[in-house]
Each structure stands twice: as structure tokens, then as C-alpha cells.
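Please, structure for the following, as C-alpha cells.
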Amino acid sequence: MSRIGRLPVTVPAGVQVSIAGNEVKVKGPKGELQRLFSPVVSIELENGKVVVTRSSDEALARALHGTTRALIQNMVTGVSAGFIKVLEIDGVGYRAEMNGANLVLYLGFSHPVEVPPPAGITFDVDTKTRQVKISGWDREQVGQVAADIRKIRPPEPYKGKGVHYLGEKIRRKAGKSGKAKGSK
């Protein structure tokens, strides 16, 4: 049996979970999420806890058991506490600032790049440390927005300039070694 799948999801105070068939709706102080799950697993609300069980030991059912439970846990955590991803900007002249709700990035292009936040996402910029915080209640959406911003100028391997996640280890390459032997 799945070690993650068999754990019940505890529903904190202030969060409402409603289950209709295999559609789960979670509402909390931060927002509201809903998701449709596969009919291979069954989802039930028992004593203030969400329990996920599978109907058989087929490979698909085993795979979806832990995944379904983890997605429901992310939904409950998101509407109660929320999720945050932090990006760092490295490079001379590279910076970020806010223009209303939009994020404006200066990343060495001939023009600034303006990123409007999708619904449910907010940006926060610390200009002193050159960090951008992306926050929201949908974990999948927060991660996707962070990946899209990182894709605008990914870190390059020689000097490490670009946008990267906080704590991300960038693989560095050695540059040119100077004059080659035997050349005149």
C-alpha cells in the first residue's frame, strides 16, 4: 500500500472541503480551489479528515493513490497558508521593480520585460536583495509562474548572470584559459 496515499489529510479550522463524486472543492481564507480526480480512487470525508482509497492493486490505481492524496493536501495547504517561490536576480544592471501589480524586469535586453500576474498570484520585490517573491494559493500555478519568469533569462554557466531560484546551485563552466601553446 502507498505510504503517502494511506495517510489522511487533516482539514484545519476555517477550511471547508466538499466532495461530490470525484470532484473535490476546498474553500479557505486564502481562496477556493476545485479539481476533478480519476474514478480509479475514491475520496471520502471522515471525522474532519479526507481519506483516499483505491479500488484495486492495478498499476494505474497504485500510481494515482499517492498522487491524489498529495494533490488534495496541496489544495488544503494552499487555501489555508498559501505557497511562496523566491527568485533571485544576478547580474550587473539586472533588477526588478513593481509597476502597480505588474512585475517589471530589467535583464539586459533593449527593453524592460513586464509580467502581469495571473488571477490568484501576487508579486513582491525586494530591491535591496534583488529577490522576487511569487505567492498564491495554487501550488501548481505558483511554480509555473516562477518557471516562466526564470525562462525569460535563465542563469548562464560562465558568470551565473540571470534569474534563478533561491538556493539553486548553478553549474559553472571554466572560461577561456588565455593564449594557447604553440600559437604566435
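The first helix runs from residue 59 to 80. The chain has two domains: 9-80, 83-165.
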